[in-house]
Design brief:
1 helix; globular; 9% helix; 15-stranded parallel β-sheet
């Protein structure tokens, strides 16, 4: 767990240093809330135990906390880390998540990159390009226009995806699953649920 935390801190620091210095908004504390009527027209960096972004952010967001909840549009990319992440964003360019659990509902223009324990993507969600996953349990109910790629313990697909190229201990395709391209799964229990 310490190695994951060090890796996450290193990634966040590198991303922070790579952003232009002008036009940054920093927020921190025990609890940080961006209210629904608040708009931030810059990149936002937030470090807190609890983060709730209900307003619109016109830029990229780095959000690191124990609990992170995103409830509105982010015009840039979201980089987030923590124990429990809940993203219900109407729109994002890309999402990079390093966390114990991620619940995603919304639209991503490009890619979703996930490192963590459990990922749930709801049926109303759409990922414009690829879903890249390195985690435990992955439950995909929303459409992925590109490919699902990565390594995981358990993969459940119950939506339309471009193609699948993964290594998984267990994989299952539900009744609403439709794979438009190739399926390449390396694993023990393809199509069987333990």
């Amino acid at each position: 767990m310490v190695a994951k935390q060090k890796f996450l801190i290193t990634v966040i620091l590198l991303l922070t240093w790579s952003l232009p210095v002008s036009g940054l908004v920093f927020k921190g504390g025990n609890t940080v809330v961006i209210e629904p009527d608040e708009t931030i027209d810059d990149d936002l960096i937030v470090f807190a135990q609890t983060i709730k972004i209900q307003g619109r952010v016109n830029g990229d967001v780095i959000a690191s906390g124990r609990e992170v909840r995103i409830e509105n549009e982010i015009t840039g990319t979201l980089f987030t880390g923590g124990a429990e992440i809940d993203v219900a964003a109407s729109s994002l360019k890309s999402l990079w998540a390093f966390c114990g659990q991620l619940k995603f509902s919304g639209n991503i223009e490009r890619n979703l990159l996930f490192f963590g324990g459990k990922l749930g993507i709801d049926e109303k969600s759409r990922i414009g390009k690829d879903l890249r996953v390195f985690g435990g349990e992955i439950d995909v109910n929303g459409n992925v226009n590109g490919a699902i790629k990565g390594n995981m313990g358990k993969l459940l697909v119950n939506s339309r995806v471009g193609k699948v190229n993964v290594s998984a201990d267990m994989s299952k395709f539900g009744p609403n699953a439709e794979v438009l391209g190739d399926v390449n799964i390396k694993g023990k229990n393809y199509g069987k649920e333990n």
